[in-house]
Amino acid sequence: MTKKDAAPHVDDAALLGAAQVRELAERLEVRPTKQWGQNFVVDANTVRKIVRVAGVGPHDVVVEVGPGLGSLTLALLPVVKHVTAVEVDPRLAGALEETVRSLQPENADKLRLVAADALTVTKLPGPDPTALVANLPYNISVPVVLSFLQHFPTIERVLVMVQLEVAERLAAKPGSKIYGVPSLKAAWYADVELAGRVGRNVFWPAPNVDSGLVSFRRRKPPKTTASREDVFRCIDAAFLQRRKALRGALASWAGSPDAAEQALVAAGVDPRTRGEQLDITTFARIAEARPEGAGTAQPRARRRGHTS
């Protein structure tokens, strides 16, 4: 975004402060729940920063997952063309439009609400989104981002606030101790970078962990004859026992240790290599070299951060 097109400053009066968030929650009889990972942002400067770092502007159609009481929604609306908000909590979904009409009546027509579980959303009412900007519930952050990148190819940019550990894992590079399944699957769709850190005191209630901003810039996936599903199955197998060399880790996926070695050698990979050393392009080559007729059973991924 050029300086000329820089996002307009949004006055505090058009945003939700800490007192307003609590008052609104009390009026709606909303108690933030661990079930839906709810932590509401109560700091105006934080939502302004998210919008600024996201780089969205007047031509963008933004999808926001988990708008909650509307803190980030109110920061987005004056800046972008349109916001589609996806909210699972029926009370919050019912109140969001009223909150916008009250604080920003001039922007009420720019908001469209979708009352649904983001993990089940595969279609959105038009116009097509160009960006995903959200303060995501910690417990579903990785699967939500991957699902939206998969189902909405018009999304070119993503800026999400997630648990700092998750942000670091998503942005990790090959060779890092925290590099793994989330890093690789995100890299199938986009270039991913850690875009900032956020303290605990900007939330109500304050979480027990720090948060991080993570940025995605979509690019074309690796050139390969293997499907995305094939590549993701290969990744899951490689990290199910991440300390194993790939010859052993991919044995079930390929049909046998010898078949795994055959695929690895064909892809130009030393069979003694471990998955954490390889990038997404290399995994695509391995998946492409998988012997025909090998079993198709998908290994059971560990719950933490492993998703397709």
From TrEMBL:
Protein source organism: Terrabacter tumescens
Job description of the protein: Specifically dimethylates two adjacent adenosines (A1518 and A1519) in the loop of a conserved hairpin near the 3'-end of 16S rRNA in the 30S particle. May play a critical role in biogenesis of 30S subunits.
Top-rank taxon, per record: Bacteria
GO molecular function per UniProt: methyltransferase activity
Protein name per UniProt: Ribosomal RNA small subunit methyltransferase A
UniProt xrefs under InterPro entries: KsgA/Erm, rRNA_Ade_diMease-like_C, rRNA_Ade_Mease_Trfase_CS, rRNA_Ade_methylase_Trfase_N, rRNA_adenine_dimethylase, SAM-dependent_MTases_sf
EC number in record: 2.1.1.182
Family indicated by similarity: Belongs to the class I-like SAM-binding methyltransferase superfamily. rRNA adenine N(6)-methyltransferase family. RsmA subfamily.
Main localization, broad class: cytoplasm
Keyword NADP: no
Residues noted as binding S-adenosyl-L-methionine in the record, renumbered to the chain: N39, V41, G66, E87, D117, N135
Chain ranges of the Ribosomal RNA adenine methylase transferase N-terminal domain: 46-220
